[in-house]
């Protein structure tokens, strides 16, 4: 039997505050799909995302990517594994003084030597791919602009292109729309959805906006107090389920209200 691309088993994180940030979280991800992770602030969404690539060290449990247990890797092995995991951040994490093209090419840092990266002497193939990615994310012609001259939505598009520059097997998005206006947020979600379909890879997105999650995600995981309390299709995310996830939930969307029995 083929193992899932991503397999998380009994994952736990304890910050020593008396309450676990993650408590025995278990799920798998295999098919190319956009998996939304929802829940209140402090539910464990960001901790979960960051434990997968060990930006946060798990307390216990297993995170297996392509059969390899990430928490058990040495620092050198972890650097190689992170080539396979693209990460997109809420705060963009761009180098402000560098150009758009230079920022995108930093996605290849895990593959090239130190001096090559320092001098930005990338291969012709890498440069061609970077131009193709900029066109795909809607930033053709922006390659020579400095990152600090871009809008928030444009910066997030650069972040997506940089992550794809790694040619990853898995994409992680940590609240990529939290700092954006509603219209730009939908554009970024549409872009993420399209890229995942084209690249045929799964992605996990930590997202606060339930309406965006229901509109664009193929699958939704609900977190509450560090525990996984919902895992299903967007159509299964009824008002009652949202109450399970959030404790209380006010939703004025007619579609949700109609799902409740009279």
TrEMBL record:
Stored Gene3D superfamilies: P-loop containing nucleotide triphosphate hydrolases
ATP-binding keyword on record: yes
Alphabetized SMART domains for the sequence: AAA
CDD domains tied to this protein: ABC_PhnC_transporter (cd03256)
Source organism: Aquamicrobium segne
Family affiliation: Belongs to the ABC transporter superfamily.
Chain ranges of the ABC transporter domain: 6-250
Transmembrane segments: none
Keywords in alphabetical order: ATP-binding, Cell membrane, Membrane, Nucleotide-binding, Translocase, Transport
Name this polypeptide is given: Phosphonate ABC transporter ATP-binding protein
Signal peptide, first to last residue: none
NCBIfam families: ABC_phnC
